[in-house]
Structure formats: structure tokens, C-alpha cells
Design goal:
The complex is a heterodimer of chains A (114) and B (111). Chain A has 114 residues and is an all-beta fold. Chain A is built from no helices and 10 strands. Chain A has strands spanning 5-7, 10-13, 19-24, 31-37, 43-50, 65-69, 75-79, 88-95, 104-105, 109-113. Chain A is globular and about 35 Å long. Helix content of chain B is 0%, strand content 56%. Chain B starts with a strand and ends with a strand. The chains are: A mainly beta (114), B mainly beta (111). Chain A binds chain B through residues 33, 35, 41-43, 45, 48, 50, 53, 56, 58-59, 91, 98-99, 101-103, 105-108, and chain B through 32, 34, 42-46, 49, 87, 91, 93, 96-104.
Amino acid sequence: GAGVSQSPSNKVTEKGKDVELRCDPISGHTALYWYRQSLGQGLEFLIYFQGNSAPDKSGLPSDRFSAERTGGSVSTLTIQRTQQEDSAVYLCASSLSRMSSGYTFGSGTRLTVV
Amino acid sequence: RKEVEQDPGPFNVPEGATVAFNCTYSNSASQSFFWYRQDCRKEPKLLMSVYSSGNEDGRFTAQLNRASQYISLLIRDSKLSDSATYLCVVNIQQAGTALIFGKGTTLSVSS
């Protein structure tokens, strides 16, 4: 597609439930990133995929968080046993390569854990 | 010490004013630098890259001082539409490192 597509745009879930967030990057972009932004806070790096290389998971806050990228394209971020502190906007971005300056962000998924 | 630090503001300026934002970064291995703009409840968008020689794009001028590990953004002749949060971003070019974002500086331009 023309841009980075994320779904759902909004998600309200009960504490303890699992959620899956989806990101469809720009076609041809080999690098894909997940960030999250809590209210009034900066962007927090979560995980990074580059081609077929092992992902950089150094930003994942706990083992409840995981992500995969199938076929080098679509990525899903899974949060298990959600907690209220997981409430945030989850942003996905893609770029041609890690060295590219042009990160294009999706419009994000606003997750609310009640 | 945070990796990228910015004055959160807000900066409240009238239309037509010149305003400057500063940013410092802690890792001397940082290689690439950018300014992103984020509107309220929207995703960040690349405003401009920052080069060692300094660069200008219309009313916007970005400068880098590697010795002081300092980046600046100057906006001349501010418009109402410039109201947004401006994010300072650095890239430490090691394997697998993604962009590191500052928390942003909020600008409000009023008529």
C-alpha cells in the first residue's frame, strides 16, 4: 500500500486478556519497527526487524510482549495477560533499510486496558 | 542521563516569531540526526535530516554540533500550522539499533 497500515486503530481490552496488533509496512521496505508512546511520553523502542536477520528485541519491556514478522512483510505484536500499564499508542514504522532516514509511521493502535 | 534530551516547553509564540529548539544527545557514537514533527494524536512525521554542515528547508534551519553533542532547530516566521511537538531523533549506527527519540518540545503559535 501507499503507507504503513495498522489495525485495529483502537482496542479496549480487559486486564489479563491477550491482544494482537497488526502492522502492514510499505511494500519493499525491509526494515520494520515497533514503538509505543504512553500519554505525554516520548516514543519507546520495542523491537526491530531487518530482512531475514534475527530481530532486535532489546526494547521489549517484559516476556509478555512478543512480535513476529511473516514473509518479511506483515508484523504482529502480541501482548499476553495485558496490564493497565500496557495502555499506550503502539506505533509501527517501516523504512527501506536500517540506515535510511525515512521512517514512515502508521497511525498507530490506541490500546486501553481496563 | 537520558540518551536524547529536549526542553519539553511549551513554547508559546505569536505568528511571525522566530523560535529555536535545542537537543542534546549522550552517545558520541551517534551518526544520524533528524527532526520529526508530531501533531496531537497523530503519528510522527519526518521534518528534516540534520547534517554536519547545517541545512535549511524554507523557514526551517537545522544545525549539528558534534563536539558539544547538540542539535538545534530554528523556525522563522512562525505560522499557526507550525503548532506541534518537535521530536529530536538520533541514530546510533550499530547493528540492530533503531532510531532513538527525544520526548519532544511543544510549540504553540498564536495569532
